[in-house]
Fold these 2 entries.
Entry 1:
Amino acid sequence: EAGVAQSPRYKIIEKRQSVAFWCNPISGHATLYWYQQILGQGPKLLIQFQNNGVVDDSQLPKDRFSAERLKGVDSTLKIQPAKLEDSAVYLCASSPRRMDYNEQFFGPGTRLTVL
Amino acid sequence: AQSVTQLGSHVSVSEGALVLLRCNYSSSVPPYLFWYVQYPNQGLQLLLKYTSAATLVKGINGFEAEFKKSETSFHLTKPSAHMSDAAEYFCAVSDGLGGSTLGRLYFGRGTQLTVWP
């Protein structure tokens, strides 16, 4: 079974530019998550989708971050405009359905550097 | 609110020695607890999870963890370290689904494990 795919793996941009990340979850997984992992910290949830609907985006900085999951499969996360503090690894994860203790399967992440 | 504290951002052990990575949690509801491992340039991989069944949980690669409610702890152990265990380890707690909770995972800051030959 193919894992969670993410692209690009690395991205370097200057502040105030925009950037987009793509995620393809494991086939059949209904729930998709985007996390931000700043160096030296654990991952922090940005947004959670159930199929193509948003379940939880309370920690998403909506003035600059946006995400969508059209057709309930692939997802994109966008930052516009980027700030220096957005430098982090952005992880995508998926799980078969929403459960209390459902395992989340993580992709390799996209490392973003904002100069 | 849920939170996790991992004591020690770096742990070093010799190959063959006991591995002990500490995790304490705070949860307003019965918790679901997880340990994840992250190898360089890779995503997180689930080691084991506690879901209110047995308090001693066995995971992959010889790791296990014990849920101690009285100590609000979920420490990760392995009797004998191997060079391949060198990685970063994250403890996480979920508040589960229901009512106002959304099954969100709250991660600790991570513990980097170094294994010396």
Entry 2:
Amino acid sequence: DAKTTQPPSMDCAEGRAANLPCNHSTISGNEYVYWYRQIHSQGPQYIIHGLKNNETNEMASLIITEDRKSSTLILPHATLRDTAVYYCIVRGYISNFGNEKLTFGTGTRLTIIP
Amino acid sequence: NAGVTQTPKFQVLKTGQSMTLQCAQDMNHNSMYWYRQDPGMGLRLIYYSASEGTTDKGEVPNGYNVSRLNKREFSLRLESAAPSQTSVYFCASSAPGVQDTQYFGPGTRLTVL
């Protein structure tokens, strides 16, 4: 799986958009970009994923550059409950049996400031 | 649906003791996983089970054994606990597919003295 690089920490004012960057310059053509977050002491929570097109769901938007070497997770209106560690993960598909492995780095610690 | 449940939530062991961490999911997922998370670190995969009856080693399997009891349950056993196994353990499950996502349990906080 490709390695990802994220800033260790970021702050964002409550109500503003939080933009979390991720570099994955060695990503290959069949690898997806996934984002998870981990709120203090809880299990990680899936946010969004994409291959090459921008994606949006009820939680966030994912913008992937045309060369796919970087991406940005956007939380459009950050709230205090969005304070968490955000993990950007790149992974390929190993088999037809769903035994995919997620490789977690250290992520970005996002703090939402009132 | 409860999602992924784990028991116990907390456990303290002495070096050399054994214990089994339990995990169950009610989402009819085929694949299940065990991760550990040390302070300030990301999660590392210990073992996974692609489907009922199969298990495979992950990144850090030494000192652990697993059992995929049935489709719902996946247990992690420490035969002889060591202080280096002090960690938070997370279980996860996913449905098969190219774009499957993993759903995590609340974690078990284990301290080995």
